């Protein structure tokens, strides 16, 4: 079956029951190896986890971006985040979304993934064969990053972080209203509200969503503040963010909202917020009992990954004849796709099943 021109109408599926369910092989355009997702025809590795020469990076989260390459290609808007996390002196080459460039025997382009600022799907074409590696992605509206773009392809490599029917998200504005109400309640009680959210992506999304409810400044943990300023420099509208002065032992944070990475929970850093109410912002909060087991007062269901309907919608819209899954609930998703007569299999990778693989505090 010949793939139509990129951007054209989607091609049809293999008929149910006719699928061979081919497993990953050495003949694939992109292969999962000990180094990362290797494209030998292009002489590059996507999101490598071992040393290599040329890397294509989907986004700046720690499980996808490591300082292991000599030359990096990434979306233009992700470069400041990558330099902050990997090193200012690295050779990181920013490419505008949708601009095609050649590597070896392939033509490559980056397309918005809607995950965090600068996150990208990687489209790789060799002759008439087109593969798309989605990286991490979401379909929900997010005012803090570029919206997801459907990219037609032959083979689609999709994440499966939340690939179970229980994971279905409310709009971000609805969750932001819950956070704003919690903050207001804590103001009335004279207590700090400490919200734990991943330092890259989730924290900035919360700050952006909250602009619909107030213009008050928010205090930011030292791991969150510099990344937030990169977002602000990129033109993302957010509430004002104030760094926490660690030397100011007398500062009273009663009634304030403080955003910190999950790693700060239970640490000595929390001693400066007596009587604090704590919340955790994550898709994992969708499962009853997670908030209680993790010891938070409040759980807010807000994810930067696609939910179950979003995964299925995206797989269908790509028109891909073959689906390969990475991390998360790959087994459940592959089983469902095969039951629907699709060619699907799992790829073994080192990408994290956590929401962003970011352990920094």
From TrEMBL:
Q: GO molecular function, one example? A: hydrolase activity
* Residues that span the membrane, as ranges: none
The UniProt entry, under InterPro entries, shows: MBL (IPR050698), RibonucZ/Hydroxyglut_hydro (IPR036866), Xnuc_lig_assoc (IPR026360)
Please state what class of enzyme this protein is.
Answer: hydrolase
- Is Hydrolase included in the keywords of this UniProt record? yes
Q: Which UniProt keywords apply?
A: Hydrolase
Q: Report the EC number(s), separated by commas if there are several.
A: 3.1.-.-
Q: Which SUPFAM superfamilies match?
A: Metallo-hydrolase/oxidoreductase (SSF56281)
The record, for PANTHER family, names: BLL1145 PROTEIN, CLEAVAGE AND POLYADENYLATION SPECIFICITY FACTOR FAMILY MEMBER
What is the designated name of this protein? Ribonuclease
Taxonomic lineage per UniProt? Bacteria, Pseudomonadati, Pseudomonadota, Gammaproteobacteria, Chromatiales
């Amino acid at each position: 079956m010949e793939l139509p021109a990129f951007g054209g109408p989607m091609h049809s599926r293999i008929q149910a029951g006719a699928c061979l369910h081919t497993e990953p092989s050495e003949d694939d355009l992109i292969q999962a190896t000990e180094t990362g997702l290797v494209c030998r025809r292009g002489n590059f590795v996507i999101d490598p986890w071992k040393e290599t020469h040329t890397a294509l990076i989907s986004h700046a989260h720690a499980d996808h971006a490591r300082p292991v390459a000599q030359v990096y290609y990434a979306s233009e808007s992700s470069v400041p985040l990558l330099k902050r996390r990997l090193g200012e002196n690295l050779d990181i080459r920013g490419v505008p979304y949708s601009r095609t460039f050649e590597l070896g025997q392939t033509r490559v382009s980056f397309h918005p993934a809607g995950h965090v600022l600068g996150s990208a799907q990687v489209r790789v074409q060799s002759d008439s064969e087109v593969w798309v590696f989605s990286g991490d992605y979401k379909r929900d509206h997010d005012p803090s990053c570029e919206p997801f773009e459907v990219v037609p392809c032959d083979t689609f490599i999709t994440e499966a972080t939340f690939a179970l029917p229980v994971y279905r998200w409310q709009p971000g504005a609805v969750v932001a209203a819950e956070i704003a109400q919690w903050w207001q309640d804590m103001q009335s009680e004279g207590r700090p509200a400490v919200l734990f959210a991943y330092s890259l992506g989730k924290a900035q999304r919360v700050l952006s969503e909250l602009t619909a409810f107030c213009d008050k400044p928010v205090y930011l943990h030292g791991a969150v503040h510099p990344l937030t300023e990169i977002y602000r420099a990129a033109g993302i509208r957010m509430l004002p963010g104030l760094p926490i002065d660690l030397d100011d032992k007398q500062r009273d944070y009663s009634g304030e909202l403080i955003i910190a990475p999950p790693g700060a929970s239970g640490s000595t850093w929390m001693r400066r917020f007596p009587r604090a109410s704590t919340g955790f912002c994550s898709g994992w909060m969708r499962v009853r009992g997670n908030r209680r087991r993790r010891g938070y007062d409040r759980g807010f269901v807000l994810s930067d990954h696609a939910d179950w309907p979003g995964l299925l919608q995206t797989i269908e819209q790509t028109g891909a004849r073959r689906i390969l899954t990475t991390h998360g609930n790959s087994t459940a998703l592959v089983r469902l796709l095969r039951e629907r007569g699709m060619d699907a299999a799992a790829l073994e990778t080192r990408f994290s099943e956590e929401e962003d693989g970011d352990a920094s505090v």
